[in-house]
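Practice record 12: protein with protoporphyrin IX containing FE.
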Amino acid sequence: MHTFHAFWWLLHILGVALWFGGQVLFSILWAKIRKLPDSWNADILQSLFDTFDRVSLWSALLTAVSGTVLSFLVEPRAKLSYFWLTYMQGMGIVALILSVFVLRWLGKTVRNRMVASRSPGSTQTYTSVLHLNSFILLTILMMAAFKPH
Ligand code: HEM
């Protein structure tokens, strides 16, 4: 692998690690937090969501930018490699939109509702989208693991 290619590959993997890692860690924390109504504190919730939103934004951008550069550098030979790449690009964009726009907006709504009403039932949509996004990222990783050469 050429050094230039290796450099962007490394950035891509760092982005993916931070993005997927952040998703999984926040999902684990969130599973606990949403079930502890007595400990909901507006400031703590705010800073937790802000941190998650910021990590998601920058890691998703790093992944997308490095992935776009890599797309110009690779020339898949096998037909299945084209499918792998197209799946990653397409679903990568879907995951980016979910991370950067949808989860950010839903997070703001759910946080305000939690602080105002202290009702755990209202966190379901946010939780579902959070899990869906982790699942999408996981399927991309599985496609990468089993990609043909
Ligand atoms: C957002 C749009 C994305 C684009 C345009 C993109 C593009 C690419 C390209 C062109 C490669 C091939 C690099 C090479 O063979 O040297 C690659 C590698 C890789 N991508 Fe992405 N990617 C994107 C998102 C993602 C996401 C969201 C994940 C994981 C959740 C991911 C995981 C990987 C992995 C693990 C590799 C390394 C595969 C290997 O070298 O065997 N990518 N990406």
